[in-house]
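Support reply, case 0932

Customer input (verbatim):
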Amino acid sequence: MVQVSVVPAGRVALARGLPITLSFDDKAAEDVTIGDVKSSLTAKFPRFYAARQKITIKGEKKALDDEATLAVAGIQDGGELAVKDLGPQINWRTVFLIEYAGPLLIHPLFYHFPRFWYGRPVPHSMLQKVVYALVLLHFVKRELETIFVHRFSHGTMPFMNIFKNSGHYWVLSGVLLAGAVYSPIYNLHSGHILGSVRNNPKFIGACTALWLFAELSNLHTHINVRNLRPAGTRQRAIPQGYGFELVSYPNYFFEIMAWVSIAAMTGSYTAWLFVAVSAYTMTVWALKKHKTYKKDFKDYPKNRKAIFPFLL
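Our regenerated output:
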C-alpha cells in the first residue's frame, strides 16, 4: 500500500476537505499514476473533476503528466502533492466545433438576407457566389476534420477561453468578412466589379485552383499528423512526408495559402486583415512548437523551418 497527502494550492472551493490523505491498496509508488490521484480526488469530491485538477509537487509550478507515476515524480509512500483548481473546463473538440460553426451560420445570413443588412437586394456576382461556396466548404471541412481526423494532446481548456477563441472566427472571418464581401460593392452590376479582374472567370478560376490545392494539402497533413499518434495516447514522433520535409507545420502554411487565395480574389481589406491576424497567430504557434520539437528530438532535421519554407 502507498499513501500520499494532497494539499490545496490556492483556493479549491470544490474540495473543501483538503488537505487529504489518499491510500492506494496493493500498489507501490511505481504503480500509482497522477491520473490515479486525480481519479481518487474526484471520487472524494465529485464536482472536482479530473480536467479541473492541476497536480504538482508541493512548492513547484510545473504540472505533472497524468501518465507519470508517483515514483517518477519523486513521491514515495507518505509523500505530498499539491492540487490547483483550473476552473470550469471545456473539451477541445467542442471548442473547435463552436469556433467553426460561427462562419457557417453568419455567411448564409449575410448572403441570403442582404435587405436586412444593406437595406436593398444584392444581385450576386460570380465573385460573391464563388467566395460564398469556398468559405462554407472550408469550414465544413474544418468541422469534419474536428470530428473524424484530429486527435488532441490536451483534453480540455478553460471554459472562458471559448469566447476569445471564437471571436477570431465569428468576428473576423464571420461578420466582418461576410459583411464586406456580400455587400453591394461586389454585386453583379457594381462598377467595382464590371470590367475588373474580379469579374474575370480565368482569374477567379486560378484563385479557386490555388485554394483547392491548399485545402487538399492541408487535409493531407492533418491526416499525416493523426497517424503519428495512436488513439488514446499522447505519443509524439517526428512528422515526415508531404510538406514536412520543408517545415514543421505545413498545415498552417497551407491554411494561410487558402485564405490568401480568397483575399487575392476579393481584394477586400477585411479579407487581408483576417489573413494577417491568422498568419501572425499561426506563426507564433509554429515557432513555439518547432522549438519544442528541436528540444524533444535530438535528431530533428536541422534544415527544417517552422512554417514558411526556406524562410522561417
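We compared this against your earlier run and they match. Two observations from our side: The chain has two domains: 2-87, 90-296. Strands lie at 2-8, 20-24, 53-57, 79-85, 89-91, 156-158. Please reopen the case if you see a mismatch on your end.
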